Every structure is written in structure tokens, then in C-alpha cells.
Amino acid sequence: MPLSKITNLSLGTGSVDLATSDVTGNLPVANLNSGTSASSSTFWRGDATWVTPSAGTALTGSTNNTVTTVTGADAIQGEANLNFNGTNLMVGTDATTGTASGLNDLIVGSSSSGPHGISILTSGTQESYLAFADGTTSPNPAFITYNHTTETYRIWGNGAERIRIHSDGDVSIGTATAEARLTAQDTADQICLHANNTNTSYASIVAQIACSRDTADGTYTLYRARNGGGTVMDCLDSGNIRNSNNSYGSLSDERIKQNIEDASSQWEDIKALKVRKFKLKRAVNKDGVDDTPYHLGVVAQEVEDAGMSKLIEESKPDKEDVALSSDFGTIDDDGNFTEGQKVKAVKYSVLYMKAIKALQESMERIEQLETKVTALENK
């Protein structure tokens, strides 16, 4: 039967009047028998009733891209000081643009004028900061500030600047001025720099001062010590050490010594020493044998042969020593160094004291001879 001829359709125990339906059979929702009329403010539920919904959640805030937070039972609100624009996450008093009116803005993301990836910065002359605190130092916890204009980091503690990392990479501790790549300044009566290797079983080098320039003619200084009046000590590229008064010493207080007694004779030891002149291989390899000066001293192996092995110390060889003798080790094609025999050194300071003792013995013998000569002359 054509649909246009149907005027009433039974559906279970109920019926639907199709008199007002169009010829295609489309049924107006308003004609559904639910007891409640359809409107723009109602919706059809699964239990065949029209319902007017209760008040739902409301999103407030006029700023685009604001991060939303729940502020009540039925309200979601965009945070005015928290913003994510798809690139940067900004926290602060002006988080919509990422600029700061004080030291309380944080931007994490990429910046056209800064590093790409993760950065902590501001777009003006103000400084952003990252603070660390355990609550015990409030209101002055330790924190880090960064000035985007000067590209300068500053580390604070208890309200005062402690460390500054300058735009050129120089670091100054205790001062805003960098006099070198690393500057440490202190006004307190304490150690300004301290290096400590806490490995109790082995430590090779605790601190090292190095320069790639290979000269030994005193044309640059490896290490310099100064007081308020100027330079007091230099360690030169040649290894020579010079100071303002030519004074070197050792702790010698009687109260820190025991078993004090006269030294034995050093006469035979000093007689057995061979004082040599020699040239250093490193200098010859670099400057040539004719331009390398002679040095005066002893040879460690000859000191051992003379029975004074306690004056000899041994240390790990450097890679440079391999070029002078294969006894010190080997270096493969990949530059891996295998340590060989130790490098011998002589305790010259002890040798000098032995020489002083031998000199005293010589003086005693000379005085005895003088006494005998005088006696013979008076006869």
C-alpha cells in the first residue's frame, strides 16, 4: 500500500498519528507522544521523555589559549597568569604575552631571540628566575635569574647574588665582575678556592694548570701568586719557580719533631755523587741540539748506584714521555696509552742538606789542619 494512504500506525500499545507527516514518511519530532513539547532548550532521552537540562559547566575567561582549571563544583575557568600558546608555556603576571612586570615570569619553549628547545627567559630587561627552597630560608630562598637582554645568569642565596654567568661564558663567584674565565672573590676570612679528591684509595692529579703553548724560555707564566702589593711568586713555562725574596722553607718547629739527633757523616755520599751537565731531550727535539742549553745536576740512576736510593721518587709517566723512551709505555694508533716503567726523580732538597752536612765535616777537617799548621809554624 502506498505510504500516502496510511493515516494511523500502531506501535505496540500506543499509536502515532501520521496525518501531519510528509509524503516521504519523515516524522516531526514535535509529534512524538512524550507528554512534553520539544523546544530548543530540551533534548530527547532514552526513556522516551523530553528533558530540560540543569545548569551545566561554564568556561569563563576571555584570553585565547589559557590553561583551564576547576575553581568550583560546576565551573571551569581560564587562569589569567597561566598561558600556553602552542609554543611557550608562560607563568606570571602577564602570561598572555610572555613579558614580565617583575621577577615572576617563566617561559619554557622556543624563542626567536633565544635558544631553541627549553629556555627560561623574558622578553624585556627584567630577569626571570628558577627558585629552589626547602622552606627554611623563606623569604629569601636560593634562586637563579636570567636577564634576556644581557644574556646573564645570576645565582642568588639569602637575598644576595652569589654567582654570575656572563654572556661570554665567564663565571664570577662572589662578585659581579669577571677578571678571567673563572673569578672567585671573597671578603670573609676563609679559603677562597678548595679542591679535594675524596677517593681514599687512589687519586692521580687533584688540580692541574695547563697551557698548550710549548716553550721553555720563560716567555709565559703557568701560575702566578699576588698579594696587595703585586706579584710574589711565578711558575714559568720552563718549570722554574721564582719568588720575590728567594725564600723557600719547611715546617721545622721542634714541637712537631721527635727523635732529634745529630746526622751521620755525609762525606762518603757526597764524594760518591757525580755532578753532571746535560741537555733535556724535549728541548733538543724542539729547538735542536745547538740551541738547547746545558743543565747542571745529577742522574737518578747514578744516585741509586751510589747507594742513595731513598733520594729517588717514582711517578706515572706522561704520554709525552713515550716519545723520549719506549720504556715509559706505548701508544697505539687510536691514541690509547699503556703505562710502562715509572719516571724517576731526585729529592734535591734532601741532597742539599747532605751537602751542607758534608760541608760542615770539611770545615772541621780544615780547622784541624789549620791548627796543626799553626802549631808547626810556631816551633
Question: Can you describe this structure in just a few lines?
Answer:
The chain is of the alpha+beta class and 379 residues long.
- Proportion of residues in extended strands: 25-35%
Tell me the distance between the termini.
173 Å
Helix amount, in percent? 10-25%
- Helix- and strand-based class? alpha+beta
Q: What low-confidence regions span 5 or more consecutive residues with pLDDT below 50?
A: 94-123
Q: Largest beta sheet, briefly?
A: 6 strands, mixed
State the oligomer.
single chain
Number of strands: 24
Number of helices: 5
Q: What keywords describe this structure?
A:
single chain, 379 residues, alpha+beta, Arc Repressor Mutant, subunit A, 6-stranded mixed beta sheet, 5-stranded mixed beta sheet, 5 helices, 24 strands, 14% helix, elongated
Detail the topology: elements first, then pairings.
Layout: E1 8-11, E2 14-17, E3 43-44, E4 50-51, E5 58-60, E6 66-70, E7 75-84, E8 89-91, E9 106-108, E10 127-132, E11 142-147, E12 152-157, E13 160-165, E14 171-173, E15 182-184, E16 221-227, E17 230-236, E18 241-243, H1 267-272, E19 276-278, H2 281-287, E20 295-297, H3 300-305, E21 312-315, H4 319-322, E22 329-331, E23 337-339, E24 343-346, H5 348-377
Parallel strand pairs: 5-7, 14-15
Antiparallel strand pairs: 1-2, 3-4, 6-7, 7-8, 8-9, 10-11, 11-12, 12-13, 13-14, 16-17, 17-18, 19-20, 21-24, 22-23
